[in-house]
Amino acid sequence: MRIISGKNKGKKILPPKDLKTRPLKDLTKESIFNIIIHSNKFNVVLENSNILDLFSGVGSFGLECLSRGSAKTTFVENYKEAITILKKNITSLNYEKESVVIEKDILKNLDFKNIKEKFNIIFADPPYKEENLNLILLKILNSEILDDQGIVIIHRQKNDKDNYPDEFKIIEEKTYGISRIIFGIFN
């Protein structure tokens, strides 16, 4: 695992030590950033943006955002082994000042309304078997933490059959191997 582009291009990221954490593959990550940068379907600028990385694991997505010039990334993770590696990755890339780590379970004890800022990009990479994606999206919508021009990016297994809130509009969807990436906004 590595940083693909930006200030820390080519630097290694420590991978997870077990199979409970599924890292974002470099090819999929690179494809996501190509869409963020080149799509004319939404208007998000990565530079100086505020990122929320849900189910962040070891931080691959959020750290890539920082390397590419985002202002801040808030990482949310509850698996202790992943948090330990995430913090090491943040330190090794010198992103302590631009990073916040929230050690909470997104479904059980994270109240999004307590987050007092807006995000330009919210990236959600829940476990493939997670069946509560609809609830997660509703929590994001009801807390109003997504900027008016912001996007939600979801990483799922290509065969997952998810339900989405009526207010969530998919504006782009791509499949890479076993991964499906959904880009959406709230109406």
Tell me about this structure.
It is a single chain. The protein is an alpha/beta fold and 187 residues long. It has a single domain (26-36, 44-186), classed as Vaccinia Virus protein VP39 (Rossmann fold). Helices cover 24% and strands 26% of the residues. The protein contains four helices and seven strands. A seven-stranded mixed beta sheet has the order 3-2-1-4-5-7-6, sandwiched between helices. β4, α4 (133-143) and β5 form a beta-alpha-beta unit. The radius of gyration is 15 Å and the shape is globular. The N and C termini lie far apart (35 Å). The model has no long low-confidence stretch (mean pLDDT 92).
SSE order and pairing:
Elements: H1 26-38, E1 50-54, H2 60-67, E2 72-76, H3 80-92, E3 99-102, E4 119-124, H4 133-143, E5 146-157, E6 168-176, E7 179-186
Parallel strand pairs: 1-2, 1-4, 2-3, 4-5
Antiparallel strand pairs: 5-7, 6-7
Keywords:
Rossmann fold; 7 strands; 4 helices; alpha/beta; 187 residues
Number of helices: 4
Rounded average pLDDT: 92
- Number of self-contained structural domains: 1
- Sheet having the most strands: 7 strands, mixed
Shape assignment: globular
Q: How far is it from the N-terminal to the C-terminal residue, by CA? A: 35 Å
What is the H/E order? HEHEHEEHEEE
Structural Rg:
15 Å
CATH superfamily: Vaccinia Virus protein VP39
Strand content: 25-35%
Instruction: Give the CATH topology.
Output: Rossmann fold
Instruction: Write down how many β-strands occur, each being a DSSP E stretch of 2 or more residues.
Output: 7
